[in-house]
Amino acid sequence: MGMRSVQKTIESRIECSGIGLHTGKEVFLSLNPLPPDSGIWFRRVDLPHKPYIKAAAENVTQTSLCTTLGNNGSGVSTVEHLMSAFAGLGIHNILVEVDAPEIPIFDGSAQHFVELIEKAGLKKQRASTEVFSLDERFSVSQEEKKITYYPNKELIVSFTIDFDHPLLRKQEYTFRFSEDGFVEEISRARTFGFLKDVEAMKKCGYARGGSLENAVVIDEDGVLNPEGLRYPNEFVRHKILDFLGDLYLYGMPVRGHFVVYKSGHTLNNQLIKALKNGKRKKHDSISAIQKPVQDFLSNSPEFKIFSA
Ligand SMILES: [Zn+2]
Fold first, then answer.
1. Are 158 and 174 in contact (CB under 8 A)?
2. Where does 138-307 sit in CATH, by number?
3. Which of 163, 153, 308 is nearest to 233 (CA)?
4. Does residue 81 have an active-site annotation?
C-alpha cells in the first residue's frame, strides 16, 4: 500500500468516431487492451506501416495549442483530454488507434473518453506499478506562469487562472485526486476560448472543427454557448483536466502537491522534464512534508472550502 498501484487496462476493444478540432474532419478512434508493463501507445492506422508512438514526455513535439506526440515525422495532436481520462481512471496499458493526425475533440472535455473506457470495462492486471514522487520542493516557471511542487503522499493540484476578462478574471480550485473525484469534478469541464482567438485560429487554418459543440466560447459580454457553464468555475477545472493529462506523460502515476499558476501545455511539459531529472523517492516518511500543504491550504480561503 502506498508505493505501488495495480496496473489497469480495458476489458475489450472499443471504437468510435468524432470530429477533429483542427482538421474539421471525422476521425476514427479505437481503444485496445494491452498486456501489463506496455504503457500507453498511439498508432496512426492511416499511414504506411501504421507507425506507433509512445505516450511519453520525450515524444512531445509541440505544445502551442494542444499537446502533440510524434516521432519520425508522424504525429498525433490533442492527446491531452484522452490522456487525462487515462490518468483519471488509472489506465496504464492501452493502444489508441486513429486514422488522422489528431484525437477527436468530442465536447471539449474528457467525458466522452471516460464513458468509452467505462463501456469497454476497466480490467485490473496481475502487475503493479511504482508510484513516484520527489522528496524536495521545486518550481518551474515561464514568464508569469509557475508550477511549484511540494512533496505529498497524495496527488493534489491547486490551480489558479487569471485572465483580463470580467468573467474569468481569477479562478482557483484545488483537486485532491481520486478516480471518482475526477469523473465528478473534472472530467466534464470543457475547453474554452475567446471568440477573437477562435476567429484568428480559423484564419490560420486551425480549429476548423471548432464550434459551440466542443468548446466554451467567450466574447466581451459572456459565454456564447446557449446551455451556459457546467460548473461555475468550469475554466479552472478544465485547466486541471489538461494538467493531469500532461502530467500522465511522465509514464506512471506521480504523487505530490502541485501549486499551479496560469500554466499551459508548454510549462506542463517542462515540469515533466524537471520531474524526470529530479531525485525520485518512494513514500516511506511523509510526516515532515505535509506542512507546506497545510500552510498553503490555511492561507487560501477558497482552497480550504474545496479541500474540506
Ligand atoms: Zn484542454
1. yes
2. 3.30.1700.10
3. 163
4. no
Q: Which three cell numbers stand for residue 230?
A: 457546467
How far apart are the C-alpha atoms of 104 and 235, rounded to whole Å? 20
Looking at 1.10.150.170, 3.30.70.120, 3.30.230.20, 3.30.390.10, the CATH number of the domain 4-130 comes to 3.30.230.20
pLDDT digits (tens, 9 = 90+) for 184-228: 999 999 998 888 877 776 776 666 777 788 889 888 888 999 999
Ligand 1 centroid distance, CA of 125 (Å)? 29
Closest by CA to 239, choosing from 168, 166, 164, is: 168
CA of 178 to the centre of ligand 1 (A): 20
108 Cα to the center of ligand 1, angstroms? 7
Provide the 8-state DSSP code for 190. Answer: P
Q: Report the percentage of the chain scoring pLDDT > 90.
A: 62
Is residue 57 within 8 Å of 40, Cβ to Cβ? Answer: no
Taking the centre of ligand 1 as the mean of its atom positions, its distance from the CA of residue 98, in whole angstroms, is 19
Q: State which residues have CB under 5 angstroms from ligand 1, the bound ion.
A: 191, 242
**What Cα–Cα distance (Å) separates residue 202 from each residue in 113, 178, 199, 206, 210?**
26, 37, 5, 5, 8
**How is the chain split into domains, by residue range?**
4-130, 138-307
Ligand 1 center–CA 88 separation, angstroms: 14
Which residue in 112, 238, 257, 265 is the catalytic one?
265
- d(C-alpha 42, C-alpha 94), whole Å: 9
Q: How far apart are CA 23 and CA 208, in angstroms?
A: 6
Q: What is the mean pLDDT of residues 117-134?
A: 93
Closest CA to 115 of 213, 16, 214, 41: 16
